[in-house]
Amino acid sequence: MTKKQSIPRFIEEIQHKFTAGIANVFLVHFNIADYVDHANTLPDYLAKWFKGYLVIFYDRNKGITFPLPSMKKKFVELVMKQELEGDPLAQAAIGESQQKPEDVELPRDPQDALRLIDMALKSGQKVLTIIGYAETLTPNADMASLSSEDRNNLVALCSWGRDLMDTESIAILVTGSLTDVHQALRAASSKIEAVEFPLPDFSERGSFIEALIKARGVKLNLSPTEFAAKTAGLSKVHIEDIVLRAEEMKAPVCSDLITERKADIIKSEYADVCEIVDPTYGFEAVGGLEHVKELFLDIMEFLEKGLIDLTPKGVLLVGPPGTGKTLIAQALAKVLGFNFLSFTLSKILGKYVGESERNMARFFLLARTLAPLIIFVDEFDQLGLSREASGDSGVSSRIFQQLLTFMSESELRGKVIMVFATNRPDLLDAAIVRPGRIDKVLMVGVPDEAERVEIFRVQLEAKRAKVAPDLDLKKIARATEGYTGAEIERLVTKAMETATKEGSEEVTKKHVTHAIWAINPSTKNIEEMTLAALKMCSDKDLVPEKYREYFDKAAKKEEPIVTAKRRRGVK
Fold first, then answer.
1. Residues of the chain by 3-state class (helix, strand, coil), percent to 5
2. In CATH, 449-518 is 1.10.8.60
3. pLDDT digits (tens, 9 = 90+) for 274-316
4. Top-level class of domain 277-443
5. What's the rounded Cα separation, in Å, for the pair 462 and 290?
6. Domain residue ranges of the chain, discontinuous segments joined by +
7. How many CB atoms lie within 10 A of CB 152?
């Protein structure tokens, strides 16, 4: 190997585990089609990194190939040595003719190819083999359903885990998804180490962008730092694609191009498992919820001061629907400068055996790469995830266990914050709401009069509505007692529609009054949901002040909370 130098973490992990004698066989997975440095793909980088090694590439399409013709010659000579020992396969491969080693046609068939590669690996020479698309050789399926060829391939690759331990040879199996490879290769007893090839982080993207722009001579309409920030979740190949498109259009790389291409790329690469959202607004777009903003600002301060242990790993927002739980989660991501990933169970669940678990694994791989990150899980109570889930062959239970495992990873504290939203906290599994997974429970209740004034103001500004002098927001707020933030937004939209139909450039008291008359509030069971939220809260400091007098009684189930009655009409 080359001498110590600045190298990617996953390459360093392979080197460390190899030199320490932990493993000679590695399963490299996830971002396998990307550049490792500024120019070399994974096979090319490994071939250069392991200097002095005979490097062998293999996949079912190309067969056995080599970086250099001289390496093919050396490989064939090693196999010919086996032929002299009477190996019939080697004899069949090389033939009895007087062909030059470099002219010998090597087999593409996996069984024959792996057998020849096995000879080279065990020849006593320093050999590195890189097996591409490993999942096509050993698919993840029950042993009984594997073909005879697949079983033979599995046995051959599994045997390398132990047989190569006392050699200087290395085998690297490459796959896009770890769960696509047969579980026997992933078992701890296999002596095969899984190593993740992650998406580039912020600094790696920035370094690649600077090198790429310099090499291609393309101009930017934003700084390399802004370019790197906007391409979170993309690979270096994706970033190159953006630059090449700008070059083709003979235009500078701009924010609009990045946003457009990122949306297309994310949709094609990850739309089946998640949605990456680019938050537009911060807390200025959130009316009320001052106690939630206060906690989130505390989180920002903790992160800025490096007080990672004080940063919650998970936050649970409880309260009736339409009270702004999704909006406040996105605003938090915007204020912190975090990426925002939306978890949707329907995108995770698959119709084939193992597909759901594989999608979940992909989701969490992406999540680790996107850090710092907010993962938002809306209506968590409706997902049906728990340890006791039944009726789907245990799929929901296994997905829930994957979620618990991810949330328990201590190294993610301060890097990934999971924000859950629910209006039925009583349906949640106790395992998810324990401290260490969800550290803060915040009640997000129906806004009071002052908060409704603020929500009306924010909504009118956000929709760029011109407000008539006769529109008194305090009177409007009093007339909408018990309305949620979502219902207030609906009223503002209706008032603006009415004003437009009348040809008015301003939203007047009459337009808002008509909207209140015309639209019935849709949120039901406010009292029950408010009581359930109060029961879930365990920290009085995190309960809105207007509810604190009821906090102890609600926790002890002594009496229900009486919420304000809804009014209709402006006086």
1. 50, 10, 35
2. yes
3. 777 878 888 887 877 888 888 888 888 888 888 888 888 888 8
4. alpha beta
5. 19
6. 9-197, 202-270, 277-443, 449-518
7. 17
